[in-house]
Amino acid sequence: MNEHGGGEVKITFLGTGGSVPTKKRNLPSLAVRTDGGLVMFDCGEGTQKQFLIAKLGFNREMRILISHMHADHILGIPGILHSMSFMGRSRDLEIYGPPGICEFVRCTTETVKFGPMFSIRAVDIRPGTIVKTDTFAIKAAWADHGMPCLAYSLTEYDKPGRFHPGKARALGVPKGPLWKTLQMGKTVKIGRKKIDPSKVVDPPRRGLKITYAVDTRPCERVIELAADSDLLIHDGMFSGDAAERAREYGHSTVVEAATIARKSHSKNLALTHFSAMYEDTKELLAEARAIFPKTIVAEDLRSFELS
Ligand SMILES: [Zn+2]
Ligand SMILES: [Zn+2]
Questions:
Q1: Ligand 2 center to residue 145 CA distance, Å?
Q2: Residue pair 129/104 in contact by the 8 Å Cβ criterion
Q3: Reported pTM
Q4: 134-193, pLDDT tens digit by residue?
Q5: How far apart are CA 58 and CA 81, in angstroms?
Q6: How far apart are CA 189 and CA 85, in angstroms?
Q7: Which of 206, 207, 99 is nearest to 154 (CA)?
Q8: Cα 204 to averaged position of ligand 1 atoms, centre (Å)
């Protein structure tokens, strides 16, 4: 993880509290900016303000993925739709979630007078591949929360390596379709000379995988979904000594979250959705790191690039 840029995918935590907001933590929302547009996971109340502060841009290509229909994950939708309308959004917006999301968005847009100039497509989804763009795919799997709750993974496709125009020019390849041919990994001919793409294009870049699983007990389906993630963002509602409480409320302890990160062979773990009981998360971080060292605690408006 790189706090200072240079990566390909930008992660911004908009809200990291669970159930109710605290002075330090807004309700759940996460923004992932990729080459193929912005993906927002959950939209707790107050997300529009965090979104504005994070300067994510109200008219980007964007999809909103909702984990489940608990109030702390969806009540920000009316607000962000209003902000988008107010800011003159013109691009279509897609909203996905478990059964109920479609009805919620329909009621909201019919009863609250936003007057949006953009179209909103809300879709009730089930597990499986739900979105495929030119650059990434998103899969959903059932989490374990005592009500229909989805975990999501976003997997970028591998990308062609960086093309170096200066090297191409130096080898006598003029700007134009031949550059594209080289970037696609094919040899080109200039007169009698053959130019190998490796001379002007770096090796392909591996696509990144990010998994989002909040409001869930430790769950085999999440482990499977999260396999080999570069970043797993997981429910860390309680400390290890509140295991009984976590079980009762359908959440995970940070110890359980760290164990999921280890079992899924994820490379990094971000704990989120903290109970309002924990003003200080130092202890929680230490507990998780004892099991999975590459753990961070998500903080509101913390942002970094994954590369
Ligand atoms: Zn929640
Ligand atoms: Zn919940």
A1: 7
A2: no
A3: 0.90
A4: 999 999 999 999 999 999 999 999 988 888 999 999 999 999 999 989 988 899 998 889
A5: 10
A6: 52
A7: 207
A8: 38
